[in-house]
Design brief:
By secondary structure, this protein is α/β, with parallel strands linked by helices. Helix content is about 40%, strand content about 20%. The radius of gyration is 25 Å and the shape is elongated.
Length: about 400
């Protein structure tokens, strides 16, 4: 996903578009994902070969690109259609998908469990119609499900009742983009701050020294004795980077909870009352848990199930879109519980709209927790400055 805020243009694949969510969707493990992809590709090839032998006249793996204009945004999409048959009068799009569930599935289950598949078809249709000289009189959007173990198939043909899915998804996406645009506008109005009105011994040149160090390498080390004010001068440098547009986010990591508390304390003292900057202290997943047992799976935890539907009506966005100040964990848990959504998922969604993150080393270095910072939940990851204490 690439966002050009000035031109209000978003570039992404159809798959990314269809799977977009304002939270971090649950994904299979790497092993399962690789296995599923291989099996899916085998079934794709088998179905396409069978179709060719039967003379159905489809073009396989048809490349497509184009734009959808929505609420002032230009959404540039690119993808590859599994099977396409197109003439001046007829448009037939078929997507081939595999499932481990037993077929047939009720349509409501397909729409609940596989909304991105339907959205892919709808997006392909919009791109094809936009590129066509005239709208064809016949349009068929076909989702062909294959049961992995048995090869049984089920076909779902989309109709006019599904069109609202695309409109709702475009609204969801552009709401997100508008909020990101608001955040960038806030960052543009940030002002430099000064950590210490009276410099301590050794601080006379520290800001220029940090600037020089980072200009030579993306990694720099600041070593100074206790009482020097390392946290304060680090925050001052970070704010300068934000205020001058050098980065769009700062992540502060420390190995001890006392270090996090000190970082928050210094940050609170540093921020003026009218500051536009927003920060979040990231606590571990277990502290967020509201289930009777700590098992993070949408199968075993009701607060991770059906996030797509629950998020649309939760209203949880107001917690972080309208509030730049830190949110107390108990308030976050209470609001998330009312929406039947895991507070940790709410926290992850909120991170994309916060300028400064304060967290433990393990959020980056631990095998079980590194995903949170290794794959930040927004588009600005490449402009994030990571600092450690």
């Amino acid at each position: 996903m690439e966002i050009d805020a000035k031109a209000k243009t978003l570039t992404l694949s159809v798959g990314e578009f269809a799977s977009f969510a304002p939270y971090s969707p649950k994904r299979p493990s790497n092993f399962t994902g690789i296995w599923r992809a291989q099996v899916g590709q085998q079934w794709h090839s088998k179905i396409q070969k069978r179709s060719d032998e039967q003379g159905e006249g489809f073009t396989n793996e048809a490349p497509i690109e184009g734009a959808i204009l929505w609420r002032g945004w230009k959404i540039l999409l690119n993808g590859r259609i599994d099977q396409l048959r197109q003439t001046a009068d007829q448009l037939h799009v078929r997507e081939i998908k595999t499932t481990t569930q037993s077929l047939p599935l009720p349509e409501r289950i397909i729409q609940r469990d596989y909304p991105d598949y339907l959205l892919q078809l709808l997006a392909y249709r919009e791109l094809l119609l936009a590129n066509a000289a005239a709208a064809p009189s016949s349009q068929t959007l076909e989702l062909l499900f294959i049961e992995i173990e048995t090869g049984l198939s089920q076909t779902l043909t989309l109709n006019a009742t599904h069109d609202t899915l695309l409109a709702d998804h475009l609204d969801l996406l552009t709401d997100y983009l508008d909020a990101k645009l608001d955040r960038l506008s806030r960052l543009a109005n940030l002002k430099d701050v000064t950590a210490y009105a009276t410099l301590r011994p050794g601080q006379e040149t520290i800001q220029s020294d940090l600037h020089s160090a980072f200009s030579k390498s993306p990694v720099a080390s600041l070593e100074a004795p206790t009482g020097y004010g390392k946290t304060g001068v680090a925050w001052e440098y970070a704010f300068h980077q934000l205020a001058t547009g050098q980065v769009e986010r700062v992540i502060y990591l420390t190995s001890k909870s006392t270090g996090q508390l000190e970082a928050v304390k210094r940050l609170d003292a540093l921020l003026p009352d009218d500051s536009k900057a927003a920060y979040w202290q990231i606590l571990n997943k277990r502290e967020h848990c509201i289930h009777h047992e700590f098992r993070c799976s949408p199968i075993t935890c009701p607060y991770l199930a059906d996030l797509d539907e629950k998020w649309k009506t939760s209203g949880l966005q107001r917690l972080y879109l309208l509030n730049q100040h830190p949110i107390e964990l108990e308030d976050l848990k209470r609001e998330s519980l009312a929406a039947a959504i895991c507070p940790y998922e709410t926290m992850k969604a909120a991170l994309g709209f916060r300028d400064l993150w304060i967290a433990d080393y393990n959020c980056l270095l631990s095998p079980s927790g590194s995903g949170l910072l290794a794959e930040p939940p927004d588009d600005a990851a490449h402009q994030t400055r990571r600092g450690v204490d």
